[in-house]
Write a structure and sequence with these properties.
Layout (H helix, E strand, L loop, with lengths): L1 H28 L11 H8 L3 H13 L3 E3 L5 E3 L4 H25 L2 H23 L3 H19 L5 H23 L5 H16 L3 H13 L7
Helix pairs in contact: 1-3, 4-7, 4-9, 5-6, 5-8, 6-7, 8-9
């Protein structure tokens, strides 16, 4: 009987940690928690709830994702967000996604093509909404649609490690992408043209064209054209 209770408590704890991680991840992305801000356990608990253990475990998870850093005083802070940081993140993202997309184009089946088309359609709809009204909810939905499209492109690569690395790097780049959105520095028309290029090349199984279009799309997150 005791073992069953322990299992239930452990599962409940995992659920709390997942919810806390999602909340902190969102607030780091939206700049509610600022770059280099110290993250004190008690302060975070007053905002988000949870126990000392669950909050510390949450920060450990976000640290493994690159959103939080452990300090020399055994505390935590939000990872910095300089132009050098975004360039480094996008450089590594480019290498990971280039490799993964090439493998997916080589090995993906018709079901994968369908997932890419569906994710692209969802992204177009989300962009229509965010262009009309870029409030926090539509911005979050748009960013999730961006993540969904990016993931769909590589989910047939056959490498769980590449997929996991892409997910972490994509999450690290969220706050830069959302900052461009808030500042109205994204050229959605050019983004749509680029995304369509990716989809067309994927469906044509044109490996080089797909990779070229993907790299151009990632590089667009460094630009501030309107």
């Amino acid at each position: 009987m005791g073992k069953l209770i322990l299992r239930r408590d452990a599962k409940e704890d995992e659920t709390v940690i997942a919810m806390l991680a999602a909340s902190l991840r969102r607030d780091i992305s939206f700049g509610v928690l600022l770059p280099d801000q110290k993250l004190k356990i008690q302060y975070l608990r007053s905002l988000y709830g949870g126990s000392n253990h669950s909050m510390r475990e949450t920060l450990r998870i976000l640290s493994s994702e690159g959103l939080v850093e452990a300090t020399s005083q055994r505390g935590f802070r939000v990872t910095s967000a300089t132009e050098e940081d975004v360039r480094d993140i996008l450089m590594v993202r480019s290498e990971i996604e280039k490799l993964a997309l090439g493998l997916a184009v080589d090995d993906g089946d018709i079901a994968w093509e369908g997932r890419v088309i569906a994710a692209h359609h969802a992204l177009r709809k989300a962009e229509d909404r965010v262009i009309q009204d870029a409030d926090d909810l539509t911005a979050l939905e748009w960013d999730e649609a961006c993540r969904g499209f990016s993931h769909a492109l590589i989910d047939a690569c056959g490498s769980p490690r590449l997929i996991d690395l892409q997910r972490k790097l994509f999450n690290q780049s969220r706050r830069f992408r959302l900052a461009l959105l808030r500042e109205r520095r994204l050229n959605f028309e050019l983004r749509r043209v680029g995304q369509q290029r990716i989809v067309d090349a994927v469906l044509a199984r044109d490996r080089e064209a797909a990779i070229s279009a993907l790299l151009d799309d990632i590089k667009s997150e460094l630009k501030s054209d309107t």
